[in-house]
Write a structure and sequence with these properties.
Number of strands: 17
Strand order of the largest sheet: 4-3-2-1-5-6
Helix content: 25-40%
Number of helices: 9
CATH topology of the largest domain: Creatine Amidinohydrolase
CATH superfamily of the largest domain: Creatinase/methionine aminopeptidase superfamily
CATH architecture of the largest domain: Alpha-Beta Complex
Length: 389
Amino acid sequence: MDLTAIQSALREAGIDAWLFYDHHHRDPIAAAILGLPETGLVSRRWYYAVPAEGEPRKLVHRIESGKLDSLPGSKGAYSSWQELHRALEAMLGPWKRIAMQYSPNNDIMYVSMVDAGTVEFLRSLGKEIVSSANLVSQFQAVLTEEQIASHSFAQSALDDILVEGFQTIGSRARSASPATEYEMMVWFKDAMRGRGLTTDHGPNVSVNRNSSDSHYEPSAEFSRPIQSGDFLLIDIWARQDAPGTCWYDITWTGVVNRDPSDYERTIFAIVRDARDAAVSAVRTAFEGGVPISGFEADDAARSVIRSAGYGQYFTHRTGHNIGAELHGNGAHLDNLETHDERRILPFTCFSVEPGIYLPEFGIRSEINMLTTRDSAKVTGAIQQELVRI
C-alpha cells in the first residue's frame, strides 16, 4: 500500500477518508490496494480507514485481531454488534465525506462491493458516502513501466500468431480436411504457449452466424468447419506468462477464399469508422489536455453506428479497461450497459471494440489503446478492411 499516494489523491479529490471494509473476501479491490492476501480466513468484518491527513485507523473483531497487522495505523477491536456500531462511530468521528467501494444507483457495478446495509448505517451517523471509482482506477488501472513493456511483448507475439493462424485456416480450407473452429482454438492456444503467452480461456473462433455471438466459444462437441466461402471472426487475447503482466486483446474479421460481398464491406466500414471515432475522441482529448470519461468515448463510437441505422445491432459497450486483469478496474468505454463516468487516466490501457451483429454474420473490430500524460495511441496492427483468408 502506498499511503502517501492514497492520502494525496484523497486531498486532491476533496475526500476526508477512504474506508475499506471486507467480510469473506467480498472486496478483492480492497485486498489488492492494501496488499492483503486474497486467501485465508475472513469470517468477521474488518474496517480500515485511510484519512486524507493523519494516521490510518483499523477496526477488527477480537477473534481475528491480527487481520490488519501488516498495515500501519492504530487499532480498535469489537465483539458484539453494539460495540461494532459504537466503535465505527468513534473511528469515523472526525470525517464527513467518506469514499467506499460504492456506486450510486449501481451504475458502475465493477466497484460496487459494499453492501447497502453498511452504507445505510454510515449515513445514519451523518456520513456522506461517495464512490471510490476514480480512486480505484488510479491505484488499480495505472500501469507500471514493466507492465507497459509486457503489453508490447504480448502485442508483438499475438499479432504474428494471428497472421500465422489466418494462413493455416486458408490452407486447411483449400485442402480436403478444413479445420474446425475448435481445432483452430486449440491451435491458437498452442501457438500462444510456444511464444511465452498465456490466456484464461478462448479464443473465440467463429464462422458465419456464430460470429454474431460476441462471446462464442467452440467446443469439441459443437464446432463448425471453417470452409471456403465462410465469414470468419477471431477474438483473441493473451498476456506474457509472468505475474502481473498486461493483456493484449484484439478482434479481426475476414472471408475465406473469396472476396467480401458489398454488404459485408459496408458493415465493416461502419464498424471501422465507429472504432476510429472513439480512437479520435480519446486522442484529441489527451492531446488537448481535456479530461474524457469512458461514456464519452462510447458515445463517439455508438453515434456512428446509430447514424448508419444499425444501433440495435451494437449490443455491448465499446471497450473495457485492460491491465493485469483482462477486464480491469479502470474506466470502461461504456454508455450502454453502464454510464461509466470514470475518467480515462494517463498510463492506462483499454480496448476499443464496436460491433454490428446481424443474423447471418457479426463484425467487430477491436484494438487496444495506451495513454500517456498528453497522448493516446493504438498498440498493434489496425484492421482497415476485411481480411481475404
